[in-house]
Amino acid sequence: MSVKDKVCVVTGGSRGIGLEICRRLVADGAKVALIGTREETAQNAVKELGATADQVKGYALNVADGTAVGEVFTQILSDFGQVDVLVNNAGITRDTLMMRMKEEDWDLVMAVNLKGAFNCTKAVMRPMMKLRKGRIINISSVVGLTGNAGQANYAASKAGLIGFTKSSAKELSSRNITVNAVAPGYIATEMTDAVSDAAREAFLSNIPLGRAGEAKEVAAMIAFLASDESAYITGQTFNVDGGLVMQ
Amino acid sequence: MSSTADKVIEVICEKLSVTADQCLPEAKFIDDLGADSLDTVELVMELEEQFNVTIPDEVSENILTVGDAIKFVEENA
Q: What's this model's pTM, rounded to 2 decimal places?
């Protein structure tokens, strides 16, 4: 199962699941373009990975900004020569019950989580079509399948990513580009640390495997989907959730 | 044939992996030159770049043959 020397772009790579994905891809010998919101956090994450400058480079980018996405991906293509794998992982939450949710809360989450994936996918489409191969992996969430009180915006964006995954899989299949989604369940990260204790306990008690997941357990699925071995899989959503949602 | 036409045909040959003698004016991209819908989108985008023109969607829908492409570029580039 190899991603050796493949050029992988990971958005939201400076922390949480994204950083773990970068760590795994680097360990497997991939070249990684790590995208973070801020220059400083992106460069710190690159340092933490401890790889050579040839193998990992950091970029600051707001994925919701289509023009900026175009510029940064042009830079990535010039730095690495091509893009083999795109992991649309950047995501934010603005949790609150809908009664209190502001229009800005909705718009911001949609812009980063859903439009960000669209912007980045558009940026790699043509280079991947030219290569006649590619892997695009969208990080969704089990709440995109189940819904979650207090996360109307986040759940809608993550459900949207699944429809987006299926549509892009169909559009790009003739060019040997596969597009899949991964839906993590309750994974221990800074994002889930922000959840209240009561909500966390309620969540954990519903997980058949009886524990929170680790980010590296999600990264293992990404490493597989990024590899040549996943060639016959496209348009699918894979839950990495300890059995929380069984379809 | 104009030099613009030659250049358009060059782009078509490269994008669709066909030869210049297949690029008759009436040759249809999809039916005659083996293109699929993505190829035609790529071709239109390539023509836009090469000739520095903008081809609106409603116009590009009607560029179906080699002759259509040459005519559009000659009239708009």
A: 0.91
Within an 8 Å CB–CB cutoff, is residue A74 touching chain B? no
Q: pLDDT tens string for chain A (247 positions)?
A: 689 999 999 999 999 999 999 999 999 999 999 999 999 999 999 999 999 999 999 999 999 999 999 999 999 999 999 999 999 999 999 999 999 999 999 999 999 999 999 999 999 999 999 899 999 999 999 999 999 999 999 999 999 999 999 999 999 999 999 999 999 999 998 878 877 888 888 888 999 999 999 999 999 999 999 999 999 999 999 999 999 999 8
ipTM of model: 0.75
C-alpha A6/C-alpha A224 separation (Å) is: 13
Cβ atoms within 10 A of the Cβ of A160, count?
A: 19
CATH number of the domain that B64 lies in? 1.10.1200.10
A129 touches chain B (CB under 8 A): yes
**Nearest alpha-carbon partner for A162 in A91, A237, A222, A230:** A237
The residue type found at A94 is R
**Number of folded domains in chain B?**
1
**Burial classification of residue A4, based on how many CB atoms lie within 10 Å of its CB (0-12 exposed, 13-18 middle, 19 or more buried):** exposed
Contact criterion met (CB < 8 Å) for B38 and A126? no
Shortest CA distance to A179 belongs to which of A192, A191, A168, A187?
A: A168
The answer to whether the Cβ–Cβ distance between B45 and A129 falls below 8 Å is: no
For the question of residue A232 being annotated catalytic, the response is no
Instruction: In chain A, count H helices and then E strands.
Output: 10, 7
Domain that holds residue B24: 4-75
* Cα B31 to the center of its chain, rounded Å: 14
Choose among B21, B20, B36: nearest CA to A172. Answer: B36
